[in-house]
Amino acid sequence: MNPKVDFFFSKDTKWQKEYEKLRTIILDCGLIEKLKWGCPCYMFENANIVLIHGFKEYCALLFFKGALLNDPNGILIQQTKNVQAARQVRFTNVREIVKLEKTLKAYIYEAIEVEKAGLKVKLKKTSEYKIPGEFQKKLSKSAVLKTAFNALTPGRQRGYIFYFSQPKLSKTREARIEKSIPCRKEFRYCCSELVDSGCNSWSMPSVGKSETVEVSL
Predict the structure, then answer these.
(1) Residue 177: count of CB within 10 angstroms of its CB
(2) Tens of pLDDT, residue by residue, the chain (217 residues)
(3) Contact 35, 8 (CB under 8 A)
């Protein structure tokens, strides 16, 4: 156990018992406990294997390379269509975790073997994602904006594409884009996990934790 992570488990939260049980199971598998993105993250030789996190309706064990795991029990969940590598196992009570303890350990050990083998998830290229029409119009009209967007890392470009694509209504997408690019010179991607320090003049509206944005930096 890592004392720096203890605060996460001592907080009076809805999922406290579930968090503690998941922690015990993971540590039994010999992983190293760290704190990343404000959550307990478990590593093997400096590689992220699993992470514990919680949401309003469930808590979950996140496998960073879950897409590469065999899933004979059908318990791995892809959070959204944009999530490529990670997969969740979700829980709503501690009994569900106890029931799956042996299975979870088997999945964790398999995830360790995936890392030992150096396997990687084949990620889609940024060019394969469709840019929302509303944002494409902005890029076509502004060379400065287009240059700034192209200067971002592929991961941050995908983050913006996902963020701008989420609203169902065109007017909502337009409003989100307008709020995100007031200076139209530089981008700063700001959410609960990632911050691009390249621009201090403005920031992208915060993406809530319930909205999953997977990026590869």
Answers:
(1) 18
(2) 788 899 999 888 899 999 999 999 999 999 999 999 999 999 999 999 999 999 999 999 999 999 999 999 999 999 877 788 999 999 999 999 999 999 999 999 999 999 999 999 887 777 777 889 999 998 998 888 888 888 888 888 888 888 898 888 999 999 988 887 754 444 544 332 332 323 222 233 333 333 333 333 2
(3) yes
